[in-house]
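Let's see one such:

===
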Amino acid sequence: IVRPWFLRNSILLSLDRGNVEREKISQLHKELAKEFGLTFVVFSFTYDFLIQTCHDYMLDVPHYVDFISMFLAKAIYDGCFNAMYILHAETFDSSDSNQLKILKAACSYLSLDPSDDHLKNIWESAISNEALGEKFNEYIQAYNENQNEAEMFNKLKDLECPFYFHEFVKRLVLFYAKEEQDDGNYEHVLKLLKYLVSNLLLTKSQFEVGVKNARHDIAVLSQSDQKISQEFKKLQDEC
């Protein structure tokens, strides 16, 4: 009998290995689910434990949140259990930001359209989320200087990381909020986001998640916050 402890321990053992090993674990879980008819409950218990104990492992595995969210998204994509788990996941503390990050990241992976291109090869990503964040910061700084939407489009497209574009949106919003840029520069931000959405590089859901996460990170974006809110609402309506 395959029990939750076997599934969760196989995931935990893979966290200090490479992507090849993590891919093998995902495939093993898929085959076990198919061969033994593992139930929703078995996988739910598995991921409840992995989410609830995230703080116990994060010191030793800095990318624990990223890895578990990827395992979760892959398991749902492979049909081991369904996406309703994300809505009903049992957590010890709903205010725990890391527990929520796992669920939100998994949801973001699964929201891609089409999802196959990334989720089929989720463990073959050539760049870590941390490195992607550094790239985003570099690109945002360059855009602040040249306001070249087409150049930004090409740079983001070349990264091949649509699953993480919500983080780009968040960093873009926070950059201008913290720098307290003038209204003209806010217009450049809106113009860029609209360009990315209209050219199908950025989805509306990724845009909304990014803005929401930015507002969650800081209580007050800037003295122009009310105006920004109105502009973002207008952009959402137009997109």
